[in-house]
Amino acid sequence: VSDAVSIRMKSGILEQFGTTEDVLESDTMDHYRTFQMTERLLHHPSKLVNQVLFQIPPHRQAMLIERYYAFDEAFVREVLGKKLSKGTKKDLDDVSAKTGITLKSCRRQFDNFKRVFKVVEEMKGPLVENVQCNFLLSDKLARDYAAIVFFANSRFETGKKKLQYLTFEDFAFCACQLIQNWTVGAVDNMVEDMDVDLDKEFLQDLKDLKILITDKDMLDQHKSLVCTGLRGKIQVFNEMEGNFKNLSRGLINIAAKLTNTKDVRDFFIDLVEKVIEPCKADRWLISDVRAFLTQYTNSARALDGFKYVQSS
């Protein structure tokens, strides 16, 4: 309370309202008591919206919910992909010391992550919508929480040294793409497992891609089509042509192993080691990578004996 009083005094509130420090301290205490009573409602935002005990305008209710569920990127980066369990919560002392975020704030953020996860993990339907409807968060914050839930469920490894340059926003973008394209909910939005679980049938089907690297004729044809399509269009053509087989093996082997839980967890590490680092070593631009992956996909679809049939 004393810290809050000091902050309010520095803002010039005493002069603004012509009041005393004692009155300011009493007012601050009232705010703290009110918050303690409303915090339990913030655990279930719909209850806050529907309660009549506290006269809080709708726009302030929305602000309270948004701020309560806001999180620090430095904190979420430390726990992303970890199991939201008591064991992880015990490590929050270390997280607090490492990030400079108060332990109390770390606990609030962790408890919020766990609360959202528990509510939506078994729900049918789109993950982002489930988060938004149950916790009344803004679209951006709901998407961020959906990413946190998704990573916690699949236990993706994000803490290794090689992944430290990646931000939470990078992982949140990846989560969005995976949810939209690789989950059970991407195929059927009313199945029991919804958007949290990767589609096991899809992951099993990815094993069929191995023909692109195990069949020499297929590998050579694929390389020829990719090189024909990219000649004169990317700055690293010679490097791509010389390293095509290694890049293709890296991509396909990552995809083919995703039926194993451990390989799912190591997905981002494998991408960095087998694809990103080789491209960085040859100084690929993002535009080069995008052009290569597009041509790589289109060329595979054009191969005789390997036709990718999109589900209708």
UniProtKB/TrEMBL annotation:
Biological process according to GO? platelet aggregation
The organism's superkingdom is given as: Eukaryota
A UniProt-annotated Pfam family: FIBP
GO terms for MF: fibroblast growth factor binding
* Matches recorded under InterPro entries: FIBP (IPR008614)
* GO annotation, cellular component aspect: nucleus
The protein's name in its UniProt record: FIBP protein
What is the taxonomic lineage of the source species? Eukaryota, Metazoa, Chordata, Craniata, Vertebrata
Gene symbol here is Fibp
